[in-house]
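Intended use. Records like the one below are meant for learning the mapping from a protein sequence to its folded structure. Do not use them to infer anything beyond what is encoded.
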Amino acid sequence: MAKDAFTHVTTWVFDLDNTLYPPAARLFDQISARMTQYVMDALNVDAAEADRLRKLYWREHGTTLAGLMRLHDVDPGPYLTHVHEIDMSHLEVDVQLAEGIRALPGRKIVYTNGCAPYAERVIEARGLSGLFDAVYGVEHADFLPKPEAGAFAKVFALDGVQTETAAMFEDDPRNLAVPHGLGMRTVYVAEEPMEAEHIHFHTDDLAGFLHRLT
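Structure written out for the chain above:
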């Protein structure tokens, strides 16, 4: 049973995008469009080339921002502000998810490759305010993105996470490899399952999964 595999967990680490809200909310469609526009303006390229670079940098560097910083010396501050200025009015409060998170024993944190102020807006819109002990964005990792080991090391050190008694919930399977290697329980949150050594559990219903743990 899944519950038995989590009895030792005292720290619960949640990704944000497509994890604490469903992919059907399509927030990342808005973010992707704003990323493409930013790349167009910053690099003076057309939309097709900007979109190609956005995807390429995500694949090769973990995030589009990481590629822009490493290859083009882009300032992360204005970028993060621009790409996260999106409409969240269609996000729905999720009472079941809130109850599931509230019932978890121990410390609960959010760790996203987005920025913390954006994460706080999403958390509020989903009715999850006050449930997390801390919220960490890419800025807390000195702009190193997940899945880089150094990013996890910085955030986990900052929070004091004891990885052998922690669990990680993520929609991007790449971002579960390092937590698995650190001894964490890993949960892949996505519509379709994926078989991989670094993925312990899969769920397409985070609220339901959490309720089965308590």
